[in-house]
Amino acid sequence: MYTTKPNKLQFRQLLKYVFFFSHSSSNFPLKPVPGSYGLPFFGAIRDRLDYFYNQGRDEFFATRIQKYHSTIIKINMPPGPFIAQNSRVIALLDAVSFPVLFDTSKVEKRNVLDGTFFPSVSFTGGYRVCAYLDPSERNHTSLKTFFLSILASKHSTFIPLFRTCLSQLFIDIEDEISSQKKASFNSLSDAISFSFVFRLFCEKDPSTTKIGSKGPKMVDKWLALQLAPLATLNPSSFLKYLDDLLLHTFPFPFFLVKSNYKKLYEAFYEHSARILDKAESFGIKRDEACHNLVFLAGFNAYGGMKSFFPTLIKWVAQAGENLHTQLAHEIRTVVKQEGGVTFQALDKMILTKSVVYESLRIEPPVPFQYGKAKEDMVVHRHDASYEIKKGEMIFGYQPFATNDPKVFHNPREFVGHRFVGEEAEKLLKYVHWSNDRETKDPMVEDKQCPGKDLVVLLARVILVELFLRYDTLRVETKKGIGLASSVTITSLTKPTST
C-alpha cells in the first residue's frame, strides 16, 4: 500500500513546518481544527485520488500540513464512497497529539481496526472478533485474557521454535541465491512465518495438514479481500481510475475466499484442541474462540510478520557494513558468553535491541490508528490546542508521529544506535507501533497488541541468526503492493575461516 513518497526537498519543507509547530506549552488558546472535507461525496473522492495516485500517501499529509500550518487537520480518509459511509476524520500527525488514540476512556475502538469502514463479519465466521471490539464490551475482556494466557503458556517455545524456522529460511535463501543469483526475501519469509505461527498454536507442521504448503497464499488472499479498500496496485497513471474503481468503490465479497477460509478454520479447529479447551474455561464458545484464533494467527501475527520482517531486513541491510560488523561482534560475543541464544542473552544485546526499535520507529508496521471520540475533548499538539467533538472520528498517521523532528534528531535517517544509552532509552515512549507506547505492557482493558513483546523478541532473533551466520548482506528493494517493501537479497557474506 506504499504510494509515491515526497522528494527530499518536500520532506525538508515538511520538517520545517513541523519544527515550527514544536515549541511545547500547555497554555495555548483553543483553536478550531483547520482543514476541509470539501463537498459531500466529491470531497472524499478528491482526497482519495490524491492519497493513492496524484500525490501518494506521505505527500498527501505533508502538503496539507503545509497548507493549514498545523499537524492536526480535517481530511477525508480512504476508501470513502461507497464502501465507507463517512470518510471524515480529524488527523493527528505529530508525537504529542497521537497518543490520545490509546486512551480508551476518551476514544471508542468499536469496529475501527481498518479505519472508516468495517469488513463483513463473513470473513470471521459471523463474529466480531476481539480486534474489532471496544474494551467496554463484555467479550473483549474474556477474549483478550484468553489471548494473553495462550502467549504466556507458549513462552518457552518462542525462541527454539522460531530458530528452527529460521534455519530453514536461510537454507532456502542460500539455495535461491546459488541457483538464481538472488533470493526473494518476502515469499521465503512468509512461508516460515506462517509455519511458525501454525506450529506455535497447533503444535503441528502445517505441511502435514489439509493446508499443505498453501497456508501463506490462503491467508494472503483472505487478508487482501478485507484490506483491498486501503491498497493500490500502483498502476500506470492512465490505469489509476480502473484501479480506483476495482479496489475502492465496492467491497469484495467473502465467497471469493470462502473455501480457503474454511480450510484454515478446520485446520486450526482440528489441531488446536488444547487451546480451544482453555477458551471454554474462559466462557468463550468453541467456534467463536477458533475464529478469533484464526484472526489472531492470520491477521495479527502472520500479517504483522509479513509487513515487518522485510522492513527490518531492508533497513538493516541499507545501514551498511559498519553497523553489520558491530552487530555481528555484539551478537557473537554475547552468545558465546551466555552459552546460547536465550532470553538472558537477547536482553544483553543492547545494540541489537536498539536496531529493532529503530526499525519499528522509522517505518511502523501498522501505520494507522483510529478511534471515535466518546466525549468532547481537547487535543494538544506541540504549540496549540484543538477541540474535538463527541462522535468525530480521530485518525493518527503513525509514521509522522514517530518521525516528529521535535522528538527525534534526523528522524528520516536510520540510526542503529538511537536507542542505546540512558537518554536514548527515554525516546522509547515515542515508539508506539503496537497501539500504545513501547514502554507499556499489554493489558486486558486496553487495545495494545497482545503479542507486542513477541514481535520485538522475534525481530531480535532474526538479527541474531542472521549475524551468527553472515558478516554482511546486500539487498535490492522496491515498492510493494501491500504495507511491506519488496526485498531481494543479492548477497550474503559468510565469516572468513581463521
From TrEMBL:
Keyword Heme in record: yes
InterPro entries, per database record: Cyt_P450, Cyt_P450_E_grp-IV, Cyt_P450_sf
Alphabetical GO biological process terms: fatty acid metabolic process; sterol metabolic process
UniProt entry keywords in alphabetical sequence: Heme, Iron, Lyase, Metal-binding
Pfam families in UniProt: p450 (PF00067)
Annotated residues for binding of heme: C449
A GO MF term: monooxygenase activity
Co-factor requirement: heme
PANTHER family, alphabetized: ALLENE OXIDE SYNTHASE 2, CYTOCHROME P450 26
Family note: Belongs to the cytochrome P450 family.
Name this polypeptide is given: Allene oxide synthase
Organism the protein comes from: Hevea brasiliensis (Para rubber tree)
